[in-house]
Amino acid sequence: MAESPFDALLKGESGRNTRGLLRIIILCTVAAAAVSSRLFSVIRFESIIHEFDPWFNFRATKYLVENGFHSFWDWFDDRTWHPLGRVTGGTLYPGLMVTSGVIYHVLRFLTIPVDIRNVCVLLAPAFSGLTSLAMYLLTSEMSTSPSAGLLAAAFMGIVPGYISRSVAGSYDNEAIAIFLLVFTFFLWIKAIKNGSIMWGALTALFYGYMVSAWGGYVFITNLIPLHVFVLLCMGRYSSRMYISYTTWYALGTLASMQIPFVGFLPIRNSDHMSALGVFGLVQLVAFADFVRGFLPGKQFQRLLTSMIIITFGVGLVGLIGLTVSGVIAPWSGRFYSLWDTGYAKVHIPIIASVSEHQPTAWPAFFFDLNFLIWLFPAGVYMCFTRLGDEHVFVVIYSVLASYFAGVMVRLMLTLTPIVCVAAALVLSYILETFLVISPQTFQAKSRDTSSESLRSARSPVVGISSYISKLIMTSSVVIYLLLFVAHCTWVTSNAYSSPSVVLASRLPDGSQYIIDDYREAYYWLRQNTPANAKIMSWWDYGYQIGGMADRPTLVDNNTWNNTHIATVGKAMSSREEVSYPILRQHDVDYVLVVFGGLLGYSGDDLNKFLWMVRISEGIWPDEVIERNFFTARGEYRVDDEATPTMRNSLMYKLSYYNYNTMFQTGQAIDRVRGSRLPVDGPQLSTLEEAFTSENWIIRLYKVKDLDNFGRDHNSAMAFDRGNKRKKATKKRGPRVLRIE
Amino acid sequence: MNISNTQYFVVHLPEPLAPSSEITLGISYTLLSSLIPRPATISQTDRQFLTYSFSAYAISAYPTVTQKTKVKFPGTNVPDYTTTSGIKSGSGSDPERQGATYTYGPYDTAKVAPGTTYPITVRYEFTKPVITAHLLERDLEVSHWGGNLATEERYWLRNNGSQLTNQFSRVEWTLTNFQGLPSSALRELKYPLKPGSVDPYFVDDIGNVSTSRFRPSTSPKRVASLELRPRFPVFGGWNYSFRIGWNNNLVSFLRQAAADSYVLKVPFIEGPKTAEGIQYEKVVVRVILPEGAKNVQFETVEESSSNGLPGSSQIQSQISSHKTYMDTIGRTALTLTVENLSDEARDSQLVITYNYSLLDALRKPFTITAGLLTAFAAIWAIGNIDVSIKKR
Question: B25-39 pLDDT, tens per residue?
Fold first, then answer.
């Protein structure tokens, strides 16, 4: 028997309070675990913005904080995409920056001296705490069991699939978008359950916030209509659905159109047409439902059939007509690449060149979700067995997200929430079945029912009474949970917590050695070059140069202008004589390349070089030819056997210039590609080495000015070296056949 | 040089000098920004030479009888120096060389009018960085509640030595470092910290500089040392700006003079200690006193060996308010601005007296309590509002 003080706490009115308090404490602990498991990189390194895109978001946030909201909205950035510039205010999702700007100003109002960088770094962990709370709310709508929500919250807090995009310093749109995604879905479920305008309006509000934060809002835009459509097809039309959907669609569309980057897309883009179509359909169904009350059955059938045919025909013709005439934009390329994974590689190499747009490998599912991935189908099955309106939602979401996660690695992020919901539903069911200790409850229940109903109608007593099986099941679940926690910690610590701006390695004595080449070179640029010196680099580094070096760049990670990127690719992959005019035309002062050959850092520019070639070949197929960079046997080589095109390309020269002087003659080795380099290093005539970082990862070259004597650089260099000028061969006339 | 370019200093003698008696005055002064690298550009491994121009006759408002100028060089490699002819009173060459010391004179200047100049230029090897801080901002934050003195310094450094003829070559730099050759580039700064200094940091605009090392003091008497290595070697004409900071226990700096009156004694500047010295073009020292401190007064105290700190008339002071960490009326901040300061001022102390009562100390707990109570009351009030549209 339980002790009496516990009885007093766990039963009746005070029992409810105790459970409520416990739930709050558990949720707070879950949120704390979610936050703290994301702090590995802050503790190991420092409070620093990670990777590439976050640097732009950080720079934009600083701009917002310094110049105010209004000028942020109208921000034309002339320090990127030189000489084109970028209408930054109109081409970004401002939700993230505005969120951290608001947090910053609130803290400043309370005179807490917080640095905007720390706000940005810690935003993602803070929002992941909120995500797990939203997850609790969403899952609690799916199940009557209180433990399902708590389990889902805990899963969401530490699952690597979500941590991968939300560690401290990973200041990207996804940092707040996943919270908004989950919370919007919770509100939607609430709305469709209650048929309340308030919940519908709240859904629209958070949908608007989501639109302002992440391009992935299209997922919500299509998922909610699909949910409604499936419910309609299942014959589950109700006024609740009508109220919630129309409220959400009307308000949500208006809200989404307030974002300059989205603008009129919701009524002009194919991606958004399903929401509009379902909106119309709901009206028709509502009308039909209304008419049915007044008409006899047969007439109604005829009316309904003709109406469906007419509207469908008109709608289809209208849609095709508008698409052809160009009022409605056709599907975007990124959208096509979702259906055909080979599409991007052929048509849009720039999308395919990003590793996170590659199809997902199977082990990635286990890596990111661990044992949740095999609980997931069981959870979906359980939703099928119950099949309320909200369970239909889970089923649709699961099917869609599973498909998308298989197509693109980064869309694993949208799959993760629903996996957590499904797995929590299953696990809570298992735990509730097996964790009940006393077998008397079953007997008590069966005795109650027997007195009320007939023996034959009574459902058979189903339950597990053996302690052994309970013990085995419970302990195995506990072991799985412990393994899950261990796996999550390991993955977070080893795979997802590297800032990638700072690299860490170990010295032979075990002490940590920090390779800080990126910041060394960026800070050199920031301190020792004119404030408007234009830097040309491959687009991966554009945001970092803008953020850390504070210098104008030619291209960056925004990749809005494929031709401009191809121009940079062409300059990198052509001979110096071709590249130099391009550099001069674009006012380039410095060229930055990343070279990992000395250290064995494999993410360097020579390994990305083929993408530059491919992208520029897309624009200039006659001048840049990918085949010429491969040897006759089709190998990509940098050593003696490299093709002349390869060895004369600017990228090759910039990477290996002066590199062989670090070694004894003929001993120069590229540690990334594992090949011995030619004895004679490449010669440069139009550029000069300006700075090389300590481990040679970043190499900066200054573009020479025109020669003072009007010579071309090659002959000027030859003169400086003291070479005798080649006698111009005597000009002979065209050969003529002697006919004497 | 004409007279109007000359700045006059008035020296008051402690006792009036009796007629036909003698007194020996030692006047020391520091000239900043007076060394010019020649050649102005060198290649990366070359030695660096500086020139210094001065007059053989010292500038004086009074007629002098005899003069002698000794120039001490950091090394014996002095390739060029002006030799005078016909103005030296004795025999022998002018200047006279003795190791690294060159002596101009003695000159018989009884007949030379004050203000006459005889230009002399010397050029000597100095393969070390010419470090110039064109701005140093130094914040000292006094916290009575925490018993803590937090120091933060922001430096904007520049190397005023010869610039590079060609661009920087990493290969040559690796070789120079490997062979331990001298270089005109700034490699490292050693910053001595007072014993008991803790939590040091060394950051710049883009984050922590991972190449620093802190050696804490092993005994309470020994100074701690902060070794700062810039991200890249700072060659002539290059800049490097950074920020460092640390904490000290307030006890060793603060004394309670009366019931409500306190005396704070802190170094005016500290700065890295290098053999070649650092020149500061502008120094802004800001002392942030606790919230509500009144009657702030300051004075500078020079120790016997120190010099280089200008008189109080040259120090601009300003009292402002600084709001941080949930302040209501803001902390009293005393800002002192000095232009042109040499490294040798690092021993001089700044003494500040101010009044601070118990009531001031209790202001913050009261504010926070009141703020939290207001927040709770507001939440309770909002929770009680019924906004539903159903009929009651």
Answer: 888 788 888 889 988
Give residue A700's domain range.
Answer: 517-717
Q: Which amino acid makes up residue A398? A: S
Burial of A288 (0-12, 13-18, 19+ CB in 10 A): middle
**Same domain as A576, residue A495:** no
Nearest CA in chain A to B171: A662
Residue, of A728 and B108, whose pLDDT is higher: B108
Nearest Cβ partner of A658 from B171, B209, B326?
A: B171
Strands B41-42 and B163-164, sheet pairing = parallel
Contact B205 A524 (CB under 8 A): no
Chain B residues in contact with A691 by the CB 8 A cut-off are 167-168, 170, 232
Q: How confident is the model at residue A443 (pLDDT cuts 50, 70, 90)?
A: very low
Q: pTM here?
A: 0.89
A-B C-beta contacts closer than 8 Å: 73
Q: Identify the residue among B170, B172, B368 best suited for mutation to test binding to A, counting A beta carbons within 10 A and taking the highest.
A: B170
Which whole-number Å values give the CA distances from A658 to A77, A653, A696, in the listed order? 36, 9, 11
Residues A642 and A603 placed together within one structural domain of the fold: yes
Tell me which DSSP letter residue B290 carries: E
Question: What are the tokens at A199?
Answer: 């919940």
Q: 3-state class of B51 per DSSP? A: strand
Residue A64 — left, alpha, or beta (φ > 0 → left; ψ -120 to 50 → alpha)?
alpha
d(CA A696, CA A155): 42
B246/B244 Cα distance (integer angstroms)? 7
Does A444 map to a domain? no
Q: What does the pLDDT look like over A671-687, one tens digit per residue? A: 888 888 888 888 888 89
Class of domain B131-366: mainly beta
Check if B25 contacts A (Cβ < 8 Å).
no
Could you read off the pLDDT of A415-434 as tens digits, one per residue?
Answer: 999 999 999 999 999 988 88
Residues A479 and A521 in one domain: no
A491 shares a domain with A522: no
CB-CB neighbors (< 8 A) of B232 in chain A: 520, 523-524, 691, 693
A637 in any annotated domain: yes
Q: Spell out the domain ranges in chain B.
A: 1-30+49-125, 131-366
- CA-CA distance, A505 to A503, in Å (whole number)? 7
Which residue of chain A comes nearest to B232, CA vs CA?
Answer: A520
Lookup: tokens for B296: 């702030």
Short-list B181, B187, B196, B120, CA closest to B159:
B187
Min CA distance, B363 vs chain A (Å)? Answer: 15
Burial of A299 (0-12, 13-18, 19+ CB in 10 A): exposed
A657 and A619 inside one domain: yes
Q: Is the dihedral of CA A715, A719, A720, A722 positive or negative?
A: positive
How many distinct structural domains can be found in chain A? 2
- If we measure between CA atoms, which residue out of B138, B149, B153 comes closest to residue B286? B138
**Looking at the structure, do residues A49 and A147 belong to the same domain, yes or no?**
yes
Q: Which CATH number characterizes residue A541's domain?
A: 3.40.50.12610
Distance set, CA A405 to CA A161, A186, A422 (Å): 11, 21, 16
**Helix axis angle, A116-142 relative to A389-407, nearest 10°?**
130
Which is it for the CA torsion B287, B290, B291, B295, positive or negative? negative
Residue type, B58: A
Crossing angle for the helix pair A273-292 and A217-233, to the nearest 10 degrees: 30
Chain A residue closest in CA terms to B241: A527
Q: Residues B70-114: pLDDT tens digits?
A: 999 988 888 888 888 877 777 777 888 888 899 887 888 888 888
Q: pLDDT at residue B2 above 70?
A: no
Length of chain A: 740
Tokens (6 digits) for A287: 């009308």
Q: Is the dihedral angle over the CA atoms A6, A7, A10, A14 positive or is it negative? A: negative
A488 and A612 housed in the same domain: no
